[in-house]
Amino acid sequence: MTENWQRGGFGLYVHWPFCEAKCPYCDFNSYVSQSIDHDRWKAAYLSELNRVGSETPDRVLTSIFFGGGTPSLMEPSVVEEIIKTAGKLWPFTNDIEITIEANPSSVEAERFKGFQAGGVNRVSLGVQALNDTDLKALGRLHSVKEAREAIEIAQNTFERASFDLIYARQNQTLSQWESELSEAVAIGTDHLSLYQLTIEQGTAFGDRHKRGMLRGLPSEDLGADMYFATQDICEAAGLPAYETSNHARTGEESRHNQIYWRSGDYVGIGPGAHGRVTLNQMRLSTESFLAPGEWLKSVEDLNSGESERDPLDLGDQKDEFLLMGLRMSEGVDLSVFDFSDKYNEINNLSELGLVDKKDDTLRVTPQGRPLLNSILARLV
Amino acid sequence: MTDLSHIRNFSIVAHIDHGKSTLADRLIQDTNTVADRDMKAQLLDSMDIERERGITIKANTVRIEYKADDGEDYVLNLIDTPGHVDFAYEVSRSMRAVEGSLLVVDSTQGVEAQTLANVYQAIDADHEIVPVLNKIDLPASECDRVAEQIEDVIGIDATDAIQVSAKTGVGIHETLEAIVTKLPAPEGNRDAPLKAMLVDSWYDPYLGVVVLVRVIDGEMRVKDRVKFMSNGTIHQIDRLGVFRPDMENIDVLGPGEIGFITASIKQVRDTRVGDTITSEKKGAEEALDGFKPSQPVVFCGLFPVDSAQFEDLRDAIDKLALNDASFSFEMETSAALGFGFRCGFLGLLHLEVIRDRIEREYDIELITTAPSVIYHVYMRDGTKIDLHNPADMPDVTHVDHIEEPRIKATILVPDDYLGDVLKLCQERRGVQLDLTYAGSRAMTVYDLPLNEVVFDFYDRLKSVTKGYASFDYQLTGYQTDNLVKMSVLVNEEPVDALSMMVHRDRAEMRGRAMVEKLKDLIPRHMFKIPIQAAIGGKVIARETLSALRKDVTAKCYGGDATRKRKLLDKQKAGKKKMRQFGKVDIPQEAFISALKMDS
Ligand SMILES: Nc1nc2c(ncn2[C@@H]2O[C@H](COP(=O)(O)OP(=O)(O)OP(=O)(O)O)[C@@H](O)[C@H]2O)c(=O)[nH]1
Ligand SMILES: C[S@@+](CC[C@H](N)C(=O)[O-])C[C@H]1O[C@@H](n2cnc3c(N)ncnc32)[C@H](O)[C@@H]1O
Ligand code: SF4
Ligand SMILES: [Mg+2]
């Protein structure tokens, strides 16, 4: 039998924790720093890479993802060096996907060429909105014009390019979103990430929200209407959702994210990076130090930036398998674990038309997809 | 032992918050009963819950020694009483132990409902009454107006009312002198057989049951063997003493004196308040008139949120009941809520106090069901059922008629709000008995069904009068009316803990209010949920809670697996605060909140 980790592929995640400015909605592990010693960071990444590589020989790498933060602020030479070192540690699959996240305000054609030359073949651009007022409200440093230019450069430089938008913004109406999304689709892209704005605790928006100062957020109903409109527009444009918030033409899905959602194995390096690796038949969850300084110091002094390493018991694995897997339109394969304890709830949920079970495949139905949290609460 | 002529016994009575306990503080302090360094505000309110809520719940006794202006030493026994109507029983029995009352009236507020209730009790007990106008330090104080009101409304002479600030100490000396000169000394015969009144008893973890006594005739000493006349039990006195306000042992208690005894008594239930204590041999022939026992009037179910805590709840209730004879309980099972207890209370404040104590002192989270009263259900076959719980209502085809308890309610309110008060009473099926005016205040008396009052009447009264109304009531008796059981169905399933008895004419209105409230209280689910109120099989109100539409987390990257697991755990913890009925989760607070009426 194929082991689960073998089925999902094997990925490398590299976290770059710096941005030009902190966006008010963002709770990613990102910081603003005046001075970054790129050589020091390069050395630390390479050291970490060697550490995790020595633990995972005999794997074939399907994907590398530079995430952040704003990894497009990395020196192209550092990115290149990391990719080279990875190539020494693991053989790459022929179609390896190497993605970098980029912020439109840090796009220069030269820089992108550098990443491309170093091996990057896919880019994900944080466009967020196609109107300048909203970009300001979201604390973004770029304009719509710059975003459009960035998309063009990205599409010309890399084999594959995707961009992100955030909807359900303050004071946004359904029809505004519909026309904005139509414009986005008209740009012509094979992949789109469309996220409903989430108010996260501990962010500037979160604080404002707590004080009742964040006005004009959509009701649950309007949020749902926007979600359904999003599905319709994207499907009509040949970009169906393959995951809750991700849309792509068939074959253009982000393979890296699919590793996460299919409970595959991935190693994570950089501040706050998570990993899931199966070593000696045991599936481990790893975490790295969150704070950049602490992570660097730990890598330099102790040869490891890892802050936590916990075995996942079977129950945890089953939970994660559903938590991640049911986000995907393809659903999950129930034969991977013993889910007989869930059949009762699965039946209840299918009676409500929220899930659909055919043979061993469990999928969340189109009506069920926006209710995934409630569905999961019943299943895990 | 003090000579009768040098003893004065009195209670301090007033409307809630008019300053009884603070006045007691000053009397204690001025007579150096307690060293200044040990003094604190409302010293006698020693229970945590009293200190926290700033109210008196239990009456407290203190013995004070006072050298009067006439040069003589007097012993003063004061009893500080609670003002809230739920604890009126504490006041009434305290009054039986003393000969006089200080009637405290807040001079910024004037006569209020409990002022009246308490003063009438004092008059019934043949007390000499000394009016005290308190809080004269406040700018809003109006002594002349309030004195006049006392004369008009109560009909006692207030020309000599003492003007006091229990806060600053003004008028305290005058108060002490008035106690000595205006209140009568007790009467009694030291040589007659022992007759002592059992005024109160409570459980002390170190001493066992402590009994508060007032000696009428004869004497009590340590080692005496005494008889409780109601049940003939014999006890030997282990300890005997007085409160200053800490317990202090003395050798003998004589006529006119108030003090405590302990006698190896295990449970408060073994003592009967109002009982007469006499000596085992050559005892008194005739007992004193007993007290009317206090009766619980409000009932509700208490259920542990975590059903595994049922035994802990039993323990907690047993312990609290040890010390509170007016609190009753029996086991109850609810299809909706599992195992719990049906408890009886003196009123809503009493209910709240007990519930708070269980939650805090015993760390048990509770679901409280709607308060109810006792209905008399007369069956076709001639039998009668005392119905404490609407869920137990028998099949209506076997019921002949139902009676409900009624009260006489007295409400004092400034003129401006009278209209709102009358409207409220009318809505609650009240019948006006009286309406009089004293200055700019109106006093109205209503005959009301208790079941319309127990729940949120007082809250509503406060809100329609901005807190300016005061309210007091007494049970008057039972009366037949057109009463029905209203059930509530959530997702087509009856929720027994939400059923209630209502008047037929009010059923639609209450049913409508209830389903609307529930619609707001129950979170949306993945499917739509009908919420109905019904009488028998007939639906009288209906709402539909629409289905949840969207809750999915938008962004989920690799590291989020860990975070999502934690989030779901939190969601599950939140679910514990809910009760599951069929497929529907109902939050605990819904059981009480659903019944509150906004208008
Ligand atoms: N300004 C002023 N405040 C007073 C005076 N006497 C009492 N108070 C305040 O009034 C409030 C109520 O006083 P308490 O002595 O607790 O009243 P109470 O009558 O014992 O109240 P219950 O036992 O709950 O019925 C407290 O906040 C006191 O500080 C006074 O003479 N002047
Ligand atoms: C790490 S960021 C992408 C890269 C880059 N830092 C940027 O912002 O352009 C990943 C994406 O998550 C989305 N995102 C971040 N915070 C979000 C929030 N609170 N609600 C919804 N989407 C959010 C944004 O669309 C963002 O582009
Ligand atoms: S949204 Fe992107 S650019 Fe903004 S703070 Fe977060 S990671 Fe940085
Ligand atoms: Mg008091």
TrEMBL record, chain A:
Keyword Cytoplasm recorded: yes
Subcellular localization(s) per the UniProt record: Cytoplasm
Keyword Iron in annotation: yes
CC terms in the record's Gene Ontology section: cytoplasm
Residue ranges of the TM segments: none
Cofactor(s) required, per the database record: [4Fe-4S] cluster
Domain Radical SAM core: 4-240
Protein name: Heme chaperone HemW
Lineage of source species: Bacteria, Pseudomonadati, Pseudomonadota, Alphaproteobacteria, Rhodobacterales
Automatic annotation (TrEMBL), chain B:
UniProt: GTP binding residues: D17, H18, G19, K20, S21, T22, N134, K135, I136, D137
One Gene Ontology MF term: ribosome binding
GO biological process: positive regulation of translation
Membrane-related topology note: Peripheral membrane protein
Chemical reaction(s) catalysed: GTP + H2O = GDP + phosphate + H(+)
Record EC number: 3.6.5.n1
Protein name per UniProt: Elongation factor 4
Naturally occurring in which organism (per UniProt): Cognatiyoonia sediminum
Source organism phylogeny: Bacteria, Pseudomonadati, Pseudomonadota, Alphaproteobacteria, Rhodobacterales
